[in-house]
């Protein structure tokens, strides 16, 4: 099994999403002895934002990087994503990665019946972290809903959100939110095995 592990938090060792993605990858390794993990830190090594020059492939180094990112995604069976909520959405570094994997003719195509996803068969696990409490289907959520839509658009229906919220309300709330997410990791992986 090939796992792609992505982190996008700017908080380094203080990051709750990084803590959760590391726990997910540890659990995947514990559940399967044949796990091969590729890691990309989108904060430490951000991808350039998508521009007209990106689309034109006028910069050979950037075009080569975009191909490597896409190939890395296509090769993965499981994608583990650390996605903190920043200003009701996700980090721009994660959006830049999405811009490299949502590629017409490769991960989706347009047909007479509408768009068709071509990247199915993968599992995506999102470690979603939030300072406040938003719950399910909040009108202020442009993070989880966006990620579900993007992955559905490219054909991935197996998307699991491991949410830890209320992290900035108090130390007790942070502990409760993280404990609940960690408990779900163990249950989720045991169920998937």
Describe this structure in words.
This protein has 193 residues and is α/β, with parallel strands linked by helices. Helices cover 41% and strands 21% of the residues. A 5-stranded parallel beta sheet has the order 2-1-3-6-7, with helices on both faces. Helix 1 (16-31) runs parallel beside helix 6. It is globular. The mean pLDDT is 93.
Write the layout of secondary structure elements.
Elements: E1 2-7, H1 16-31, E2 36-41, H2 52-56, H3 60-75, E3 78-84, H4 92-101, E4 108-111, E5 114-117, E6 123-129, H5 144-153, E7 158-164, H6 171-192
Parallel strand pairs: 1-2, 1-3, 3-6, 6-7
Antiparallel strand pairs: 4-5
Brief summary of the model shown:
With 193 residues, the protein is of the alpha/beta class.
Task: Output the number of helix runs.
Answer: 6
The tally of beta strands, per DSSP, is 7
Radius of gyration: 17 Å
Which geometry do the CA atoms define?
A: globular
Poorly predicted sequence stretches spanning 5 or more consecutive residues: none
Secondary structural class: alpha/beta
User: How does the major sheet shape up?
Assistant: 5 strands, parallel
Percent range for β-strand residues: 15-25%
Identify the notable features of this structure and list them briefly.
single chain; 193 residues; alpha/beta; five-stranded parallel beta sheet; two-stranded antiparallel ribbon; 7 strands; 41% helix; 21% strand; globular
């Amino acid at each position: 099994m090939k796992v792609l592990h992505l982190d996008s938090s700017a908080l380094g060792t203080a990051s709750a999403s990084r803590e959760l993605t590391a726990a997910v990858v540890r659990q995947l390794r514990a559940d399967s002895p044949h796990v091969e993990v590729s890691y990309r830190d989108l904060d430490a090594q951000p991808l350039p934002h998508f521009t007209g020059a990106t689309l034109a492939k006028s910069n050979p180094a950037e075009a080569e990087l975009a191909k490597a990112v896409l190939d890395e995604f296509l090769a993965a069976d499981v994608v583990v994503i650390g996605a903190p909520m920043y200003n009701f959405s996700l980090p721009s570094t994660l959006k830049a990665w999405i811009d490299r994997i949502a590629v017409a003719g490769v991960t989706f195509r347009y047909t007479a019946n509408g768009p068709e996803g071509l990247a199915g068969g993968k599992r995506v696990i999102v470690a979603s972290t939030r300072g406040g409490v938003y719950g399910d289907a909040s009108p202020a959520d442009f993070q989880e809903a966006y990620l579900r839509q993007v992955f559905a658009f490219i054909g991935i229906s197996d998307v699991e959100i491991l949410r830890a919220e209320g992290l900035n309300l108090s130390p007790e709330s942070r502990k409760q939110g993280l404990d609940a997410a960690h408990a779900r990791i163990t249950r989720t992986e045991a169920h998937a095995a």
